[in-house]
Write a structure and sequence with these properties.
Length: 304
C-alpha cells in the first residue's frame, strides 16, 4: 500500500531538496503536487484541504525562510503534519483498573473483525494477558465457528451462544446483548483479564446494526470500542467512519488489509475525520499479520 503515493511524494521532494531558496511559487507548486498525490490516493477532500492549508502556512513562514536548507525543512513539515493526521502519538490500549478490560469490535461485514479478534487475542496473550473471546456476531452464517477456529489457533477460549453451531450455512440464534453479558460474567468468574467481543456487521451501515452494537457496548461497559475498517474501501471510508463514530462513539480504529494494493486514502482519512486514533493494523490473514500502529513510522513509510 501507499506505493504510488510514496513515489509521487518522493519525486516532488527530490525537486524541492535541490533548491537553495524557495519562492512563493515553489511552495505553491509543491503544495499543488502534494494535493494531487493525496487526492489520487483517495484521501478525503476535507482532509486534503486542511492538510495543504497547514503545510502551506508553515512553509511560507519563518521556519522555512530562515532554514539552512529550506527544501529539507518543508519535507520535515510535511512529515510532521502527516503524523498529525495519522493521530499523533502511538495510542496504547486503555486497560481497566478493575479487570477484565472489555474490548468491543465494530464495523461493516467483511471488514475483518472476526479475523482481527483472533489476532488481537494472540497479541495480548503474548504480552502476558489472559484474554477470552466472545462471539456476538449472530447474523453472519459461520461467524461463531470462524471465531472458534481463530480462538483455537491463538490458544484463547471462546465464549459462544451454544456449541452446536457448526454448519456452513446455519447462523446462530439468540440475543447478542445477552451473550455479551454472559460472556462478561464468565470472564469474571474465570479471571480473564481481557474480554474481546466480536459483533455483527452489515454490508452497509444500518440503524438496527448500530443500535445492537450500542446496546452491547452499554450492557458490558466496554472500555475500548474498536472500529475495524477495510483500507481498500476508498472514499466510502469517511461516511462509514462517521456513521460508526456517531452510532457507537468508538475509541480507536483498526485498519485491515494493509497488505493489499489499496491507495491508502482510508488510512489517511479516518483518524483525521473522526478525531479517533488508529491503534492497530492488520496486514494479512495469518495470526501474526498484525501490528501496533505507529503514526510516525507510517508517515516515514509514506515519505521515504
Ligand atoms: P468480518 O465480517 O468483519 O468478521 O470479516 P472477516 O474477519 O471474516 O474477514 C473478511 C475476509 O477478509 C476474510 O476472508 C479474511 O480472511 C480477510 N481478511 C481479514 N483481514 C485481512 C487482512 O489484513 N489482509 C487480508 N489480505 N485479508 C484479510
Amino acid at each position: 500500500m501507499f506505493n504510488s503515493l510514496s513515489d509521487r511524494l518522493s519525486a516532488t521532494f527530490k525537486n524541492l531538496r535541490g533548491k537553495g531558496r524557495l519562492s512563493e511559487a515553489d511552495i505553491d507548486g509543491t503544495a499543488r503536487e502534494i494535493r494531487r498525490a493525496l487526492l489520487d490516493a483517495d484521501v478525503a477532500v476535507p482532509v486534503v484541504r486542511e492538510f495543504i492549508a497547514k503545510v502551506k502556512a508553515r512553509a511560507l513562514g519563518a521556519e522555512v525562510a530562515q532554514a539552512l536548507n529550506p527544501g529539507q525543512q518543508v519535507v520535515k513539515i510535511v512529515n510532521e503534519e502527516l503524523v498529525g493526521i495519522l493521530g499523533g502519538k502511538t495510542r496504547e490500549l486503555a486497560l481497566a483498573k478493575q479487570p477484565p478490560t472489555v474490548i468491543m469490535l465494530a464495523g461493516l461485514q467483511g471488514a475483518g473483525k472476526t479475523t482481527l479478534a483472533g489476532k488481537l487475542a494472540h497479541h495480548l496473550k503474548s504480552q502476558g494477558h489472559t484474554p477470552m473471546l466472545v462471539a456476538c456476531d449472530l447474523q453472519r452464517p459461520n461467524a461463531v465457528k470462524q471465531l472458534q477456529v481463530g480462538g483455537q489457533r491463538a490458544g484463547v477460549p471462546v465464549f459462544a451462544p451454544h456449541p452446536g453451531v457448526s454448519s456452513e450455512t446455519e447462523s446462530a440464534t439468540g440475543d447478542p446483548v445477552k451473550v455479551a453479558t454472559e460472556g462478561l460474567a464468565e470472564a469474571r468468574a474465570k479471571l480473564h483479564d481481557v474480554l474481546i467481543i466480536d459483533t455483527a456487521g452489515r454490508l452497509g451501515v444500518d440503524a438496527e446494526l448500530m443500535r445492537q452494537a450500542a446496546d452491547i457496548k452499554a450492557a458490558v461497559g466496554a472500555h475500548e470500542t474498536l472500529f475495524v475498517i477495510d483500507s481498500m474501501i476508498g472514499q466510502d471510508a469517511v461516511n462509514t467512519a462517521q456513521a460508526f463514530n456517531e452510532g457507537v462513539d468508538f475509541t480507536g480504529v483498526v485498519l485491515t488489509k494493509l497488505d493489499g494494493d489499496a491507495r491508502g486514502g482510508a488510512a489517511l482519512s479516518v483518524a483525521s475525520i473522526t478525531g479517533k486514533p488508529v491503534m492497530y493494523a492488520s496486514t494479512g490473514e495469518g495470526l501474526k499479520d498484525f501490528e501496533i500502529f505507529h503514526p510516525d513510522r507510517m508517515a516515514r513509510r509514506i515519505l521515504d
